[in-house]
Description:
Elements: H1 5-18, H2 20-30, H3 37-51, H4 54-57, H5 66-89, H6 97-115, H7 119-138, H8 147-154, H9 156-174, H10 183-197
Helix pairs in contact: 1-2, 2-3, 2-9, 3-10, 5-6, 5-10, 6-7, 8-9, 9-10
Amino acid sequence: MMTTNNDQRVSENLRAVMGEQTFAALTVIAQSHMEDISGVEAAVRVIAGVFDDVERFVRVLGVETPARRECEKKLLTGFQNNLRLLIEKTWVEKFDEALKEQVLYRLNRFCVQVSASRYIESVADFMDIVKDTVYLMFGSQTEKSDFGEYAMRIDPDFGVFWQYNRAFAQAFGSADALPQPTEIPRILLLLGMFFIANY
């Protein structure tokens, strides 16, 4: 993939705004190819620190236990409630009403998939839900190459989330095969949900 001078400038600007540690963590995620669990877990802890509270997020990491399942269930509920509220409260043009309804429908389907631990098949839905929700909020601005910079200026946490989502999509898209076990997609999916649950 060839990078342009504009891509390089945007990357340098994002690095300066978000900080070296956060930028490095996003790079680890984007280049993980869904294979390096220890690298991804370390990067996820850095990003969770930007989003909110690392200690709250790490409760959904590690060996599956009843306590971990309960934390994941609460995270899913918070995610669904916050995102539904955000979508419902977002004013849109008449021609975007159908998209708004589709996103709400897909959100419900996504939450059913995640609650059934179907993480891999949930990733594409998550990416689409986030992309469409952000489009409903910001319109065609989201399609511009400098939207990441714009997002960092208006809300640094949201800007990091936008870049995180892009890194996650790159990692998932570059995986040679669907990751087995599903722990890396699960962790990356839950981190994106963690941001929205606390937004």
